[in-house]
Amino acid sequence: MNIFLGDNAQGKTNILEAITILSLTKSHRIGISPNIIMFNKKKAKIKGVIKKDKIITKLGVELTDDSKKLTVNTDEIRKVADYISNLNVIVFTPDDLEIIKGSPSIRRNLLNIQLSQISKVYLNTYNEYNKLLKTRNEYLKILFNNSIADVNYLDIITDKLIEKAIIIYQMRKEYLDLINENINNNYKNITGEEFLRVEYIPNIEFANYDNESIRKKLKHQYKRYYQKELNYGMTLYGPHRDDFSFILNDINLKFFGSQGQQKVAVLAYKLSEIPIFESVCGTLPVLLLDDIFSELDVKKRNKLLKLVGSDIQSIITTTDLKSINKRYLNDAYIYKVENGNIERK
């Protein structure tokens, strides 16, 4: 456990952001590289050394206004899919309350980031799905404006889109099922409350998630709502419209949860990802927890630290260590952050 201690606006979150970019090639805060680059500078560089089972890997990310250069050891990596998974991370920030309170796109993005880290198949399938989706949307507009355009071409694109959608649906459903194996215990261990789960909500109802059931339902949906999609000029059904919700005692936390409940629910979700990473990847991810103690009472703070434990490498930022049990602090490395400078205490 590594704790970075300092007042606000001293640079603590920048440390977590740098590690996130090194892992995912993009920030958890901002997706636009010019905002990451220092003012009046042309580029930013982040380098890190990763050690797994005595194997040392040097990672590098170089950002300019319009390009991104990725390196593993001395080799330049052209595809993001070939770079991601060298360093797996799970990130929690105060903005993550939006995972519950915000739009479905935020929750889909969360699923995409975590599944992409543990499965190259998912990442490639998701990228291919988005390309097909763009092509299908463009052709729907052509069909709307040109009555003699070939409808058969739309059917070919649709069939290809469905095959990619099947994989995405199945992997998201399986992932959220695995989250549900641990999320309630994590929430209960921090709060004492029970019965938290996540509920997968595709915008199409499936009786089950085998290949043929999904394929049949999607074909029926696209056929039934062909005219509607034509009028809108876009694909209205598919995993790009997915959502999921946090349910505590059969109540949706988005509408009826307190901010404290929402925060712990997201933390419980993130902690539930750890055993999935360990099982699939064979190694534990790095846990990045930004300002986790705010809005948690003393009891919850210590219960959370107990849950994080010492088996996983965790990097935690906080403005104070008040009321933290000394047994956790004695096992942690503590760093003071002031004006962008870091000093081991």
Which short descriptors sum up this protein?
single chain; 345 residues; alpha/beta; Glutathione S-transferase Yfyf (Class Pi), Chain A, domain 2; six-stranded mixed beta sheet; 13 helices; globular
In the CATH hierarchy, the architecture of one domain is Up-down Bundle
Number of helical elements = 13
Q: What CATH first level of one domain would be assigned?
A: Mainly Alpha
Strand content: 15-25%
Extended strand count: 13
Kindly identify the CATH topology of one domain.
Answer: Glutathione S-transferase Yfyf (Class Pi), Chain A, domain 2
Structure explained in plain terms:
There is one protein chain. This protein is of the alpha/beta class and 345 residues long. It has a domain at 89-284: RecF/RecN/SMC, N-terminal domain (Glutathione S-transferase Yfyf (Class Pi), Chain A, domain 2, Up-down Bundle), CATH 1.20.1050. Helix content is 48%, strand content 20%. A 6-stranded mixed sheet has the order 6-10-11-1-12-13, with helices on both faces. α12 links the parallel β10 and β11. α6 crosses α8 (211-224). The protein is globular and about 75 Å long.
Short recap of the structure:
This protein has 345 residues and is an alpha/beta fold.
Please specify the SSE layout and strand pairing.
Layout lengths: L1 E4 L6 H13 L18 E10 L2 E10 L3 E5 L2 E3 L2 H4 L5 E4 L5 H4 L2 H15 L1 H26 L5 H30 L2 H9 L4 E6 L9 H14 L1 H7 L10 E6 L2 E2 H4 L2 H23 L4 E5 L7 H11 L5 E5 L7 H5 L2 E6 L2 E4 L1
Parallel strand pairs: 1-11, 1-12, 6-10, 10-11
Antiparallel strand pairs: 2-3, 3-4, 4-5, 7-8, 8-9, 12-13
